[in-house]
Structures are given as structure tokens and as C-alpha cells.
Amino acid sequence: MPYQLLESFVQGLDPCLDLEFIHLHLEGMPVHFLPEYRSRFKINNLFVSPSLRNAIDGHKIDYTPIFLSEVPKLFKSGQFPIDVALVHVSPPDADGFCTLGVGVDIARAAVDSARIVIAQINQQMPRTFGHSKIHISRFAHKIEIDTPLPQSFRKAESQNDQLNAIGKNIANLIEDGSTLQMGIGAIPDAVLKYLGNHKNLGIHSELCSDGIIDLIQNGAVNNSEKMIYPGKTISSFIQGSKKIYDFIHNNPLVELHPSDFVNSPAVIAQNPKVVAINSAVEIDLTGQVCSDSVGHKMISGVGGQIDFIRGAAQSSGGKPIIAITSRTQKGDSRIVPTLHDGAGVVTTRADVHYVVTEYGAVNLYGKSLGERAQALISIAHPEERHKLDIAWRGFY
């Protein structure tokens, strides 16, 4: 997100203008969220950031549920007409081409669809390969800055034993030659550290972070068996520390492409043994997965979970995985008899295959309702299993 550009843009706006801001996930508290500005226009989130979770009101600050793979179509079709695209780019090369740097995802479609493009050119934005180039002549206006990008650091988690067990359980499902999709956070990090002895792994993921670097440098990831861009790590955006920003800068072996390509289930499925690792808030005993809300409260979005779940399911030897700790930090079971009131189903019971907790891994594909319930109960926290079994028997 071009924060300095956004700040200048918002502060200079005519208060009488009827404006709507559309964006994906944002780090921190951007200026247009501040109380003195947010009442002046509408904010439409395509993914809910932590800073906005308590502000969604279904009116001035709203959320549009949509698969990440389909967001570019909203812009290109004109259903979401883009008048002005604000973009954060790398400095131009000798031929005048900037790049979208760490975020091609939906920015490519916004740039291609907008009437006006305004750029924040940052000396510290990595220069990236893929479908990332924009000629400087496309910009109606631009500002230049020299500012570090926001960083996300890998944290030491208090639930290390749980996470290590989940990481091992997932790593045991991953075969040599698999193509991986995983995001940022404690569970993906836990998986990555157990893959160092694997061979010929590939990366095709909507998001990449620091955890992939060691696997690339030690040769576990070489992308040699992928069908889509073999030899290259493919992503649509990068989020992490300066370590990964430096790693991708001018690195031709890492390419960033738009979300309608990277997240297309048809594209994903062409790679072999796709392992898609996604998390959830809760899962009921029939396999319905809620990952975007706590009850009625939106905490994230649909994102790319179902894109990759379905792409992996169609891949030869693919394994779609939902990975969760058996309990929340408050001690509530994530495996529940029924989803809580208001909880949204992101991944349907028909889409779910593997579910992994620290207590094991089960595959629900092709299983009946009763078989699913017993499988999920077997990987729930031991103190929850009897209650879950009684609840399930009470349904029939």
C-alpha cells in the first residue's frame, strides 16, 4: 500500500466528494481509517485487516466476500469501476519501466483498468519479475520516497509444542516433488522447518514469506517438477522482513503474477502433487470450515483458501489441507459440533480433504457424515472428544 501517497491524497480531498476506497489487506492503521477522515467516504474491503475488524458496520466500512482469483474480474469487467489507482512501485529502469514490487495480486488489474494511475515510487521497493512492469508514462502523477517497506517478523510462539506437532504431521504428508502453497504465520513456519530434507519441491502460492528462503538456498525447493513456470517460484505478493525483500530484488527465479492467474484453480491444478495448507477459525463435525469470521464478526476474508483447496484437489496427487490447533488460546475447541451462530462457511464440507491438528491428520474425502465425525473427534483435544461424541450422537 502506498501509505505516504495515500496520506497526501486523503488530506487534499474535497470533503464534499463522494468517494469509495477499495483494497485488500492493509498493514497498520492507514490514514483513511482515522476517525477524522473515515466518515467522509466509503471503505470497501476485499479482505478485512486486523485494524478494521471492529469497524465493519455494513455501511461506511464494508466487506465484499469474493474469491481472490475473481477480484481482477471485478475491475476488468467494470463492475467495480476504478477511476484512480494508487500504486506503490520500484524505481524505473533505463527504459522507464517500474515494477509493482512486492504486490502484483490485484494491483495489476487495477492499473490496467483505471482511468488515472498515481504512483508512489520508492527507492526501497524491490524490483520484481513476472507480470509486474509498468512504464512510467502510465502515471498521471507520482511522488518519490525512500522508505523501508512494512515488515512482518516470524515470532516465537507460546504454543511451540502444538505447532511443532502440526508441522511434523503436515510435513509427513508432503512428498518429494510436491508444489506448495502456504501463507504467513505460525503454522506455515512450523511446516517449512521440517521440509529441509525433502527434494524437488516447488512453490506456487498467492503469498510467500521468509520461510521459503532457506528451502530454496539448501536446494529442497528447486521448482524442477512444476508444469507452470518450472524452475521458478511463483507468487502474487510478498510479505515478510527485509530478508525476503532483498532476496526477491532483481531475482529472475522469483516471479510475481496477478491473482486471477496465480489463484486460478485450473492453473494450480496443472502442477503435480499440489499441497495447499490453509487454516481455520473452526470446523464442525461434518467438515464445514469457517475461516473468515468469529460468529458474525468478520476477521479476515474468503481470500484464496477455496481457490487453492480446489486447485490442489484437482492436481494429480494433490492434498488440500486445513491445519488448526485443537484449541484456541482461550481453550475453546476448534472442532465443534456445529459452527457458531453467524459463522461463515468458506470451505464447504464437500471441498474438505485433509484436516490436521497436533493430534494427527485425517482425510475426510469420500467419507460419510458419521465417518467424518469420528475422524475429526479422533484429532480433537483429548479433553473435548467425549463431549463431541455425545453431541454428535444427539443429532440422530
Would you summarize the structure shown here?
By secondary structure, the chain is an alpha/beta fold.
How are the SSEs ordered, and which strands pair?
Elements: H1 3-11, E1 20-23, H2 35-38, E2 42-45, E3 61-63, H3 71-77, E4 84-89, E5 97-99, H4 107-113, E6 116-122, E7 129-130, E8 133-135, E9 141-145, H5 160-171, E10 179-181, H6 186-192, E11 202-203, E12 207-208, H7 211-217, E13 233-235, E14 237-238, H8 242-248, E15 254-256, H9 259-262, H10 265-268, E16 274-279, E17 282-284, E18 289-290, E19 293-294, E20 297-298, H11 305-314, E21 319-323, E22 335-336, E23 354-357, E24 360-363, H12 369-378, H13 382-393
Parallel strand pairs: 1-2, 2-3, 4-6, 6-9, 7-15, 10-11, 10-16, 12-14, 13-15, 16-21, 17-22, 21-23
Antiparallel strand pairs: 5-8, 17-18, 19-20, 23-24
Helix pairs in contact: 3-4, 5-6, 12-13
What's the structural domain tally? Answer: 2
Beta-strand share of residues: 15-25%
Shape: globular
The CATH topology of the largest domain is given as Glutaconate Coenzyme A-transferase
- Give the CATH H-level superfamily of the largest domain: Acetyl-CoA hydrolase/transferase C-terminal domain
> What is the CATH class designation of the largest domain?
Alpha Beta
The neighbouring-strand order within the major sheet is: 11-10-16-21-23-24
Structure classification: alpha/beta
